[in-house]
Amino acid sequence: xxxxxxxxxxxxxxxxxxxxxxxxxxxxxxxxxxxxxxxxxxxxxxxxxxxxxxxxxxxxxxxxxxxxxxxxxxxxxxxxxxxxxxxxxxxxxxxxxxxxxxxx
Length: 104
Known about the structure:
Helix content: over 70%
Oligomer: single chain
Strand content: under 5%
Order of helices and strands: HHH
Distance between the termini: 41 Å
Number of helices: 3
């Protein structure tokens, strides 16, 4: 449960950073209507943020079930772990393409 809580907190921190970045960019006039790059940026990073939100909801429900019933279904936890690590791999791809290569 401790590592679930740590992962949940880091996921919330990621979402808050993403929200502040989106807010700052839109405030500066760099929104999704300005260019194809920004449209792709908001679509890719926003979709990733949506999936992070879904994963956090899934994690919260899973933690609640473990708290109520104890640890009973390893396969449910493994599916959540696979989903979360898939998001990690997708983020590495998005970061590389959008942030690293996009800034060249």
